[in-house]
Write a structure and sequence with these properties.
Number of domains: 2
Subunit structure: Component of a cohesin-like complex composed of ScpA, ScpB and the Smc homodimer, in which ScpA and ScpB bind to the head domain of Smc. The presence of the three proteins is required for the association of the complex with DNA.
Function: Participates in chromosomal partition during cell division. May act via the formation of a condensin-like complex containing Smc and ScpB that pull DNA away from mid-cell into both cell halves.
Helix content: 40-55%
Structural class: mainly alpha
Subcellular location: Cytoplasm
Largest sheet: 3 strands, antiparallel
Strand content: under 5%
Radius of gyration: 22 Å
InterPro entries: ScpA, ScpA-like_C
Keywords: Cell cycle, Cell division, Chromosome partition, Cytoplasm
Number of helices: 8
Strand order of the largest sheet: 1-3-2
Order of helices and strands: HHHHHHHEHEE
Shape: globular
Distance between the termini: 29 Å
Length: about 240
């Protein structure tokens, strides 16, 4: 099974880290390393199941997070407490990287916006403009989180005995299944309701089908607020 997923909005591990910081409403200058590292590691474990992009660079950052977390957990002797306070916070270099990356990303978006604005200044024959829908605010990292939560529910509900067979479901068949399920639910249903099997490969193919439909703008994912249920609905 091979299905490459690459979304241009998210370019690597620092994007994932910034996404988690925003989602968990963490102060970037006072990062709780235990919570952030745990969330990050869970996320890349799920990404490895889904085979989303190359995980090498994500694992490198995971090692960095674990190292920082370990340094912060080391006990400080009473006599050395004053010296420790004067030493550099182990999170400082990470915060600097994140802030610098965020600045570069904002600058890149501003340059892109300027380029698009300049393009409008060239004279051209009038053309019929199609209505443009709003950009999706939901992103692939949110969807991976929803898949991760669904897997946790599956583990609790999975029968003790299950017959294991080879799965031959294609993305096209999974797409048809998702659309049929949405039709039966008046065009919208909870994300986890689209997964009706305990077979891991079929679960993955259903996830890819949802991404495929989102890419083609046939469906969209919605969530009222952080940690709420995710819904998939037809456009």
């Amino acid at each position: 099974m091979s299905y490459e997923v690459k979304l241009s909005v998210y370019e690597g591990p620092l994007d994932l880290l910034l996404h988690l910081i925003k989602r968990l409403e963490i102060d970037i200058y006072d990062i709780p390393m235990k919570e952030l590292t745990s969330q990050y590691v869970e996320h890349i474990e799920t990404m490895s199941i889904l085979q989303l992009d190359e995980l090498g660079e994500y694992l490198v950052l995971a090692a960095t997070l674990i190292e920082i977390k370990s340094k912060m957990l080391l006990p400080v002797h009473e006599e050395l407490e004053e010296v420790a306070e004067e030493e550099e916070d182990p999170r400082e270099s990470l915060v600097e990287r994140l802030l610098r990356y965020e600045q570069y990303k904002k600058a890149a978006l501003q340059l892109e916006a300027s380029y698009e604005e300049e393009r409008q200044h060239f004279a051209k024959l009038p053309t019929v403009m199609e209505a443009v829908e709003e950009e999706e605010t939901f992103n692939v990292f949110d969807l991976v989180t929803a898949f991760q939560n669904m897997l946790k529910k599956q583990v609790k509900q999975e029968p003790k005995k299950a017959r294991v067979g080879r799965s031959s479901v294609t993305v096209e068949e999974a797409v048809a299944h998702v659309l049929a399920k949405l039709e039966r639910h008046d065009g919208a249903c909870r994300f986890d309701e689209l997964f009706e099997t305990y077979d891991r490969s079929q679960l993955v193919m259903t996830f890819f089908a949802i991404l495929h439909l989102m890419r083609d703008r046939q469906v969209r994912a919605t969530q009222q607020r952080n940690f709420d249920e995710v819904y998939i609905e037809k456009r």
